[in-house]
Recover the amino acids of this structure.
């Protein structure tokens, strides 16, 4: 995994070399105002870990650029030097993967605290669609690595409705998955649940965003995504489902 992160860093570094000379001029020409959507969303996720329940939350919704700062729903960062159709970005993410196992012997298992991912990324808006690539390290307890890739297309429908099909995957290394879904020998001894030490794994996902203009600057977005968990996650005694289903509907105001 360290080699993969090194290759990613070298790749974006090499791609950005021709742009270093124009970095100052693009900094001056970067939009300084707010451009994008801000609002509220109702967010839903099924329970896939032992003893936890389906959640429905009211959360802020943000997908905007403000100068070099950006927000993309759950991912936030700062654009640096230009790279191809986008920029090299310093990124973090609001992540809720932490959980507390519940029910019988599972209550003896330690709580898994949510990670704080930090890393590098790029958003490439090309003639054939948008590509998102992020490489994170959890700077809290797991110290694990995450790489995520997403491709998004745009389809125009009547009445200015747009749909955005999404395809992608995330890769999580052994250290990350062992913290969240492993069962240590000590936990096994206390709870009686079999110990488990997962390897790294890849989880593919597919999704769809439907954007409906409501008049004026108001936008209604509906997002649906299904992720098929890697077998190394599914085989954990702390996991109860093979899929994670995310759905949200947001009402937002578009700044232009």
């Amino acid at each position: 995994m360290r080699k993969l992160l090194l290759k990613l860093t070298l790749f974006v570094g090499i791609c950005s070399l021709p742009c270093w000379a124009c970095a100052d001029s693009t900094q001056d020409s970067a939009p300084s105002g707010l451009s994008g959507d801000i609002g509220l969303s109702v967010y839903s996720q099924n329970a896939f870990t032992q003893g936890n329940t389906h959640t429905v939350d009211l959360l802020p919704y943000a997908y905007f650029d403000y100068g070099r700062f950006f927000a993309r729903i759950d991912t936030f960062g700062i654009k640096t030097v230009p790279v191809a159709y986008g920029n090299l970005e310093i990124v973090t993410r609001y992540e809720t993967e932490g959980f507390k196992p519940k029910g019988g012997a599972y209550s003896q298992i330690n709580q898994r605290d949510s990670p704080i991912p930090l890393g590098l990324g790029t958003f490439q808006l090309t003639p054939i669609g948008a590509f998102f690539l992020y490489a994170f390290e959890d700077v809290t307890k797991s110290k694990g690595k995450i790489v995520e890739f997403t491709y998004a297309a745009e389809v125009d429908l009547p009445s200015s409705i747009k749909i955005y099909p999404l395809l992608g995957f995330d890769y999580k290394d052994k250290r990350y998955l062992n913290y969240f879904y492993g069962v240590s020998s000590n936990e096994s001894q206390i709870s009686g649940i079999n110990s488990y030490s997962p390897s790294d794994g890849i989880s593919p996902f597919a999704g769809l965003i439907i954007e409906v203009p409501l008049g004026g600057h108001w936008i209604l977005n509906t997002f649906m995504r299904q992720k098929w968990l890697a077998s190394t996650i599914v085989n954990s005694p702390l996991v109860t489902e093979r899929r994670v289903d995310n759905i949200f509907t947001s009402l937002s105001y578009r700044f232009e």
Observations:
- The first helix runs from residue 2 to 16.
- The CA atoms of residues 167 and 206 lie 5 Å apart.
- The first strand starts at residue 34 and ends at 45.
